[in-house]
Design brief:
Helix content of chain A: 25-40%
Number of strands of chain A: 11
Helix content of chain B: over 70%
Number of helices of chain B: 5
Distance between the termini of chain A: 90 Å
Strand content of chain B: under 5%
Strand content of chain A: 15-25%
Radius of gyration of chain B: 24 Å
Number of helices of chain A: 5
Radius of gyration of chain A: 27 Å
Shape of chain A: elongated
Distance between the termini of chain B: 69 Å
Structural class of chain B: mainly alpha
Largest sheet of chain B: none
Oligomer: heterodimer
Largest sheet of chain A: 4 strands, mixed
């Protein structure tokens, strides 16, 4: 009897110790990761990061660079995280520039080509072109107290671990060491602009039972028939309006967008900024509409 | 006998603490996806700042650039850009990219000198 009680004491002590150890390791002094990669960030920071990638792409039109940046989140299917973020931003604020930039990037990644018009000449000097290398796949390192753990010990990051905290601001004219490389940078901002008029080429009622009832499907393409992403679509009805963009569902195609109409409500659709409005779109419930526009 | 039980009890607690620490730090550490941006590797931080500089170069919207640079939390915008320039120089960023970040630094410095605050 006494022996049994003794064993229970030991078990109690062990469980108590494990509980204390786990609480300390998880709550009081959890592992703090350093030298992490963007994909390991909290989801809200990943969202911000992707938005900045899309905005930078809209600013510099450097598709290869944007592609490499997005591959940090999903190497196999880079369009997927961008499309998901585009849909999230679109749901929160359909008219935002961020939603449009994300939609364009998602569509371009899905097509694996840029929709921005590339300038014909960007290197007046004829120097060799070398893009700034993007960070390689990192080694994840974690610290516990003073100890450092390396999560993927297969290789070491080739970049220096720069300690850059309290730096004095540099002088306004920073002298840069000459580097014989040149980053191609687009100077033209031309793209399939919203101001260009679109012509309705197809308007057809669709009663496909596989589709959502009242689904308004819009397809926008350029003069050559290539799908156009990031084109603003305005839907108006008596009680309200909605703005969305093509390219938010890149798995369909970059020029596709849709909207669910309510039964018995009259809708008007406008593509871009200068196109004729398509009015009198109405659904009784089961059927929807297919609209195709060409620039 | 009583002392022996006492020592064994605390010995098991110590053993349990050790096992708990190994489990909590090595086997199943606290959630990985709560990582803040200030833990990013220096070259990723530099690339983020470069993106902000690219956007600024296009829209010249300094408040928006400063807002984007609050991403790192513990650094001012100026510190973040300076750190990125240093990293960029060390890992061989193209001169154009360094120039973009330098332009952003200058804009931040001008902004701070005009309103007397460090951006």
């Amino acid at each position: 009897m006494n022996e049994t009680r003794g064993n229970l004491y030991l078990l109690t002590g062990l469980i108590l110790g494990i509980a204390c150890g786990v609480i300390y390791a998880w709550v009081i002094s959890p592992i703090r990761y350093i030298n992490t990669e963007p994909a390991s960030l909290s989801s809200n920071y990943q969202q911000t990061y992707l938005q900045v990638v899309a905005q930078a792409y809209a600013a510099d039109h450097n598709f290869a660079r944007a592609q490499e940046r997005v591959k940090l989140f999903d190497n196999a299917s880079p369009a997927r995280p961008v499309a998901a973020e585009a849909q999230r931003v679109f749901a929160a604020n359909p008219a935002s520039a961020e939603a449009r930039d994300l939609a364009i990037l998602a569509a371009d990644l899905a097509q694996n080509k840029t929709s921005y018009i590339q300038p014909t000449s960007i290197l007046p000097t004829g120097e060799p072109v070398t893009d700034t290398p993007l960070p390689p796949t990192p080694t994840l390192t974690a610290t516990v107290g003073n100890a450092v753990q390396t999560a993927t010990p297969t290789f070491l990051a080739p970049t220096p671990s720069t300690t850059v905290s309290p730096l004095p601001p540099p002088p306004p004219t920073l002298t840069l060491s000459p580097i014989p490389t040149f980053t191609p940078r687009a100077t033209s901002t031309a793209r399939a602009v919203q101001q260009a008029p679109f012509t309705l080429t197809k308007k057809q009622e669709s009663c496909d039972p596989a589709l959502l009832p009242g689904l308004l499907q819009v397809q926008v393409s350029d003069a050559q028939g290539h799908p156009l992403a990031g084109i603003k679509i305005t839907v108006l009805w008596q009680e309200g309006s909605n703005i969305f963009y093509t390219g938010l569902i890149p798995e369909m195609n970059p020029g596709y967008a849709d909207f669910v109409m309510k039964a018995g409500v009259l809708y008007t659709v406008k593509i871009g900024e200068a196109s004729t409005e398509i009015s009198d779109l109405k659904t009784a419930g089961a059927c929807g509409w297919q609209l195709e526009f060409k620039q | 006998m009583r002392l022996k039980r006492f020592i064994l009890f605390f010995g098991m607690i110590a053993l349990g603490i050790g096992a708990g620490l190994v489990y909590g730090w090595a086997i199943n550490p606290a959630k990985y996806d709560i990582t803040p941006p200030d833990t990013l590797r220096a070259d990723y931080k530099a690339d983020y700042v470069l993106m902000v500089a690219e956007i600024y170069h296009s829209d010249h919207n300094l408040p928006a650039a400063i807002q984007r640079l609050t991403f790192f939390g513990n650094q001012t915008a100026l510190q973040a850009v300076n750190a990125a320039i240093l990293t960029g120089q060390q890992i061989g960023y193209a001169q154009d990219d360094l120039r973009l970040m330098t332009d952003l630094t200058q804009a931040l410095l001008q902004s701070s000198s005009s309103n007397g605050k460090t951006p």
